[in-house]
Amino acid sequence: MEKNKLTAPVEKLGLEVKAYGEAKFNTLKLQTAKGLSQGIASVTSYLLLFILGCAFVLVLSMGLILFLGEKLGSYATAAFYVAGALLLIFIILMLVRKYLFRNSFIPGFVDMFGTEDTEGTKPIKNWKELDIAIMKSQVQEYKQEARIAKQVARVKMSFSPELLIPTILKRIIGKRK
């Protein structure tokens, strides 16, 4: 019975750390499963829309080439005009891709993983806010680790010889009386 009283703080700390780790791991597994399933569904739908969009642009381009070829009297000139227009659209999209695509996907991925900023008050909308939220989350994680380390130090201190020996002697002397 004495042994259980002496080791109870350590056992309690171990159980708390184990429970914290299991909860953290389960949350991570669930968020990952949710995020992956939604991500794969999104990628599949975007891929399908991309393929259909490419087919539409191809058919539209061919129709435009045929229409302009009739009006201009030269299908080659019409093809160059259409290719030039498509190249101009491509260049514009390349110049604004960071703002158009990257920042537009962040809210969706943040929603997938159920993450907000560390205060939980505002949704994350762009890369800068995402980086700040990651740093804040890491700081909170380090603080939690420090709390656990302090608890471990307290447990070690409670088992130090200068505290442990008088406690044991008091129990032994108390039983003899």
- SSE series: HHHHH
Distance between the termini: 19 Å
Structure classification? mainly alpha
Overall shape: it is rod-shaped
Gyration radius from CA atoms, angstroms: 32 Å
Helicity level, as a percent range?
A: over 70%
Major sheet, described briefly? none
Query: Strand portion, in percent?
Result: under 5%
- Poorly predicted ranges: none
> How many separate helices?
5
The strand count comes to: 0
Average pLDDT confidence is 77
Task: Summarize this structure briefly.
The chain has 177 residues and is mainly alpha-helical. Helices cover 88% and strands 0% of the residues. It contains five helices and no strands.
What can you tell me about this protein's structure?
This protein has 177 residues and is mostly helical. The chain has helices at residues 2-72, 75-95, 97-112, 127-158, 161-176.
Keywords:
rod-shaped, 88% helix, 5 helices, 177 residues, mainly alpha
Write the layout of secondary structure elements.
Layout (H helix, E strand, L loop, with lengths): L1 H71 L2 H21 L1 H16 L14 H32 L2 H16 L1
Helix pairs in contact: 1-2, 1-4
